[in-house]
Fold this protein.
Amino acid sequence: MKNFLYKNFKIKKELGQNFLIDYNVKNNIINYINLKENDTIFEIGPGFGHLTEFLFKHVKKLSVIEIDDKLTYFLKKKFFNKRINIFNKNVLKFNFFKYNTSNNLIRIVGNLPYNISVPIIFHCLSFIKIIKDIHFMVQYEVGNKISAPVNNKFYSKLSIFVQYYFLVKKIFKIDSKSFYPSPKVKSYFIKLIPRKKNIYKKININNFKYIVSTAFQQRRKILKNSLSKIFSENTLINLGINPFLRAQNLTILEYCVLTENFSK
Ligand code: SAM
């Protein structure tokens, strides 16, 4: 099982190094992504290139971003002379605008380092204009939170902030045994598609975040209490918001309505 690890390689837990070793899972992922030869693909955290070699077979333009110097060195040897751009960089500082040399929208793929999966998703947000879609493996809990609809027990700030920009689909669960070393939690393979025509109004995003965060800070309280510093009960009623609901009962659209009113 460990025979892909080259001699003396020490797994770095702090870099979320759980390598995907299950052939069927890799195959299912690649089939699901439905790659086209002319796609422009960026892979985050290629590790030993387990997914990379599959991606490579299908597309002409492939770039990978790996922070670990040793893995980058390994990848450069493994893919020597092949048409892959290998960046030894921290993805959280990676400028996709700068490195997308094609005219295509880009497709981002990755079995993410779980400790920074949410910051990575937010980083990608800054490049939404040039993104066609995103396919990530994330921890089970993050998959549930990101995709949760209103009134669901997992519906949270994260669901709202991400779904404001993206349509989110949970594709399938992945057992922890599919990775080496096995993480403590199961995983989800998810897809994020930028909303082409945003169904939500253009709002001041900082105010939106402020209102959503305030409501969820005391998620068990009814809105007239949790939002009392920002809106009076009457204002909520006038805006068509039931003040006796709780943070998890408001749709994204309703948070937009609140934000619009706050900004005036
Ligand atoms: N894709 C490989 C696989 O599935 O076997 C490895 C996935 S492993 C979960 C996460 C990978 O992301 C590791 O190779 C790790 O070194 C890399 N990584 C961690 N933090 C990173 C960062 N900030 N920027 C780029 N790569 C990072």
In short: The domain at 2-194 is CATH 3.40.50.150 (Rossmann fold).
